[in-house]
């Protein structure tokens, strides 16, 4: 069933349909919030976004625009969060604080030393992802949180699929360049 | 014909993500078979892609958990609000009951709303709220109409329980009035009130307010302004003056006046309407304006004056930052160090000593009083200001004139500035604010060497550690940044 169909059912009062939308969109919204405010508060803000969406879904006039509409709510939620208690620089604090890369489950094939090396590499990679310019960070994070198609990503961000391709290409090039610079 | 290297670089992402059509993929693969440099590039891109998938794995798992939490929560809320759902009575115990119905016009609702507002006004007394900053923080963390509190539980303000989330009053400098529909009686708004489509908002003399509109649009109303919320993305400016920021909005926002329609698409504007005159100033982006048989696009920094059939578009003589000074009244209510206010002060300060009407900018900064201390102090302490001796001293002079007790830590910091004139003005202000000087007159801070002054600066810092309890609410560390201190 398409998102638009689920939205229409939710607008008729079907909470289960909205629940299905939540499962489909949660990762993308967490990714979007992560790009806006850092990893630490991203899940909480995504939950807030999805709950606000639930309460306001009846006001959505064009069900085909659900993703873009939800992104709009997420933008407001993130801005509000940043505004509260002067958290303008919180995103950068998050990189060094509790937003840092989570250690992966140990791989049995690797020695503890090798595992630590892998974790360091991935942490460095995530650190560079966090430092990408916003428009590249945004598209890259949403992509790797959920791996949507370019068309889906384009609809959510209200840009063309070609723009998504261009931004992802640029984001990956920037990452490679920066990582090769710090890890020769 | 196969791809060249440039096309390959542009298509690698799409190829890795399975987004390239079959023909393009074949062409790319043919090129790779021939070009070792591109093969190397693609191998590197693939490795990075796989690493990213691995790196994001824990985040994806966390996102799935977040989804399930939301699903659980909405299950407790039952059905989402619908346009067709019959109205239910709000209940203080059940968020579901209070949030569900969309408002329908009718006598019952009007009476309920009137009673709710009266109770809320009496209980919350919005005109007597000293802690506006706290109120603001609360607003941000737990938006009424959304019903979420910072700790994850739910509550809903009784006065706004039934309102749909078209707009929300987030800040006021005094009482704001509201009518549920055009022609209806006005009520005093409780703080954080939410408004539905059709609501009319008006500000009284000397009162300004800020309203969060749908999604990411922010509205500010100047004094004696009346506006009607037509729908989620449009309003009518009946009279008065508003400021609208739709720069982060995914969709355009429309303002209607009696004669024109103004559409802000990723734009910020200031608009005055005293029919038949309308004046629009575009602060960011481009704004489209339509009349009966005409349409104009007004660019950033341009002003369009409409008087009946006559239209004049020009760059205003007064800087937009000065022209829109009325919003400062709201920004200073957001508490110390509001980022937007600091940015505006930075822009004003950037013109002092450089622009033609420099006194205008300086007067504007002075009018903000103690609020401009932090931006000015930051400027004085910035490495860039080292090359601008005269402006640094001007900033210190301005700062000494307007500083309030909140600025004491910043002023103590400046006692360790390398420039004697800056130290002089900081000492002058400190003496004015505290009535003491630790035996060193202001002029001595300028005449003596930096080294000779520092023991007294240390005395000030020691004093502050013991005296700060006498200045409740004043925060800040008087320790200077290392670049301010001379080695000898």
Regions of chain A with pLDDT < 50 over 5+ consecutive residues?
A: 87-106
Cα-based radius of gyration of chain A, to the nearest Å: 18 Å
Instruction: Tell how many strands the DSSP assignment of chain B holds.
Output: 15
Characterize the main sheet of chain A: none
Shape designation of chain A: elongated
What is the structural class of chain A? Answer: mainly alpha
The portion of residues assigned to helices of chain A is: over 70%
What is the radius of gyration of chain B? 29 Å
The fraction of residues in strands of chain B falls at 15-25%
Mean pLDDT of chain A: 81
Q: What portion of the residues of chain A fall into strands of 2 or more residues? A: under 5%
Low-confidence segments of chain B, given as residue ranges, are: 83-114, 116-164, 483-488
Structural class of chain B: alpha+beta
Calculate the mean pLDDT score of chain B and round it: 77
Number of helices in the DSSP assignment of chain B? 16
Query: How many helix segments of chain A?
Result: 9
Oligomer kind: heterodimer
Number of strands of chain A: 0
End-to-end separation of chain B: 72 Å
């Amino acid at each position: 069933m398409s998102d638009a169909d689920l939205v229409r059912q939710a607008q008729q009062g079907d909470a289960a349909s909205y629940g299905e939308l939540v499962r489909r969109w949660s990762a993308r919204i967490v990714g979007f919030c992560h790009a806006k405010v850092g990893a630490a508060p991203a899940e909480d803000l995504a939950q807030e976004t999805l709950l606000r969406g639930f309460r306001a879904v009846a006001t959505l006039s064009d069900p085909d625009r659900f993703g873009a509409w939800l992104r709009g709510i997420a933008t407001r939620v993130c801005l509000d969060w940043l505004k509260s208690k002067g958290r303008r620089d919180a995103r950068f604090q998050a990189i060094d604080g509790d937003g840092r890369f989570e250690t992966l489950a140990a791989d049995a094939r690797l020695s503890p030393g090798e595992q630590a090396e892998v974790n360091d590499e991935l942490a460095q990679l995530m650190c560079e992802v966090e430092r990408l310019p916003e428009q590249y960070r945004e598209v890259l994070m949403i992509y790797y949180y959920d791996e949507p198609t370019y068309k889906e990503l384009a609809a959510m961000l209200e840009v063309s699929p070609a723009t998504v391709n261009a931004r992802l290409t640029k984001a990956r090039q920037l990452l490679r360049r920066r990582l090769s610079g710090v890890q020769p | 014909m196969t791809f060249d290297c440039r096309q390959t670089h542009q298509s690698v992402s799409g190829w890795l993500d399975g987004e390239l059509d079959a023909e393009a993929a074949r062409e790319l693969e043919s090129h790779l078979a021939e070009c070792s440099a591109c093969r190397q590039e693609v191998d590197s891109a693939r490795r990075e892609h796989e690493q990213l998938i691995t790196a994001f794995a824990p985040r994806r798992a966390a996102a799935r958990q977040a989804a399930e939490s939301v699903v659980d929560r909405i299950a407790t809320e039952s059905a989402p609000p619908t346009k067709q759902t019959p109205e239910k009575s709000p209940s203080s115990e059940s968020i579901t009951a209070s949030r569900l119905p969309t408002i329908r016009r009718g006598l019952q609702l009007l009476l309920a709303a009137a009673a709710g507002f009266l109770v809320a006004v009496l209980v919350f007394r919005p005109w007597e709220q000293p802690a506006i900053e706290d109120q603001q923080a609360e607003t941000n963390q737990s938006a009424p109409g959304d019903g979420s509190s910072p700790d994850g539980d739910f509550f809903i303000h009784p006065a706004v329980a039934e309102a749909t989330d078209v707009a929300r009053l987030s800040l006021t400098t005094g009482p704001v009035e509201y009518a549920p529909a055009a022609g209806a009686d006005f009520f005093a708004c409780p703080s954080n009130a939410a408004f539905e489509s059709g609501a009319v908002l008006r500000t009284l003399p000397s009162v300004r307010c800020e309203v969060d509109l749908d999604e990411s649009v922010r509205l500010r109303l100047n004094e004696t302004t009346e506006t009607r919320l037509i729908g989620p993305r449009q309003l009518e400016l009946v009279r008065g003056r508003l400021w609208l920021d739709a720069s982060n909005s995914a969709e355009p926002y429309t303002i209607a006046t009696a004669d024109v329609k103004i559409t802000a698409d990723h734009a910020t504007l200031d608009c005055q309407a005293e029919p038949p005159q309308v004046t629009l100033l575009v602060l960011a982006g481009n704004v489209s304006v339509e009349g009966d048989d005409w349409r104009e696009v007004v660019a950033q920094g341009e002003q369009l004056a409409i008087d009946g059939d006559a239209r004049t578009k020009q760059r205003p003589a007064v800087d937009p930052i000065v022209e829109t000074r009325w919003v400062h009244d709201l920004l200073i209510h957001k508490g110390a160090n509001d980022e937007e206010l600091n940015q505006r002060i930075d822009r004003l300060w950037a013109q002092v000593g450089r622009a033609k009407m420099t006194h205008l900018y300086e007067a504007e900064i002075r009018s903000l009083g103690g609020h401009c201390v932090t931006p000015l102090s930051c400027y004085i302490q910035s490495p860039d200001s080292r090359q601008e001796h005269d402006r640094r001293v001007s900033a210190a002079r301005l700062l000494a004139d307007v500083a309030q007790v909140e600025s004491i830590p910043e002023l103590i910091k400046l006692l360790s500035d390398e420039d004697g004139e800056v130290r002089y003005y900081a000492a002058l202000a400190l003496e004015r604010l505290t009535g003491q000087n630790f035996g060193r007159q202001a002029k001595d801070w300028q005449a003596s060497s930096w080294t000779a002054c520092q023991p007294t600066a240390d005395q000030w810092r020691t004093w502050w550690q013991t005296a700060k309890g006498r200045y409740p609410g004043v925060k800040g560390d008087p320790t200077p940044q290392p670049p301010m201190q001379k080695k000898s």
